[in-house]
Amino acid sequence: MCLDDECNTSSGYQDIYVVVDSIASRFTRSRLSCEKLGSAEEWLEAIQEKYVEFSVPEAAQVVFPMEKACLTRACPTEKDWCEFDPECTVSPYREPSASVKGWAITCFTVVGILLLVAFLYVLHVWQVKQQVQRYTV
């Protein structure tokens, strides 16, 4: 969640659960906080400072900026990405294209209403005739 109007500072939690015998228990909870930096250069400097602060060996450091390189040195192909990216494939949840035109629905609705009104009118006339017969006998 953002902590200010411009979302320059944000915070959140990440819970990791372990399931044993169908019972879920929280294993860890991490509090994450992020602060937006002013430029790419500041971001690169912050990464280098953390490498020094945490004594990350040079072999484990990632070279920035990453230009046509991957962290694992085995770059995923477009096919690999499409296994996880819903934008690459047709969603099974898409609504099918309409097979009935709007004018057909309108015609059926109007005809249905007219038939209903006609039925109610005939029913009313029949009831009036029945009532007239009852009163005249």
Task: Map the helices and strands.
Blueprint: E1 9-20, E2 23-35, H1 40-53, H2 78-82, H3 102-136
Antiparallel strand pairs: 1-2
Could you describe the 3D structure shown?
By secondary structure, the protein is an alpha+beta fold. The relative contact order is 0.05. 39% of the residues lie in helices and 18% in strands. The chain is elongated and about 110 Å long. Among the domains are: 1-36, no CATH class; 38-86, no CATH class. Strand 1 and strand 2 (23-35) form a beta hairpin. The protein has a two-stranded antiparallel sheet.
- Low-pLDDT runs: none
Q: Largest sheet at a glance? A: 2 strands, antiparallel
Oligomerization state of this entry?
single chain
Residue share in helix: 25-40%
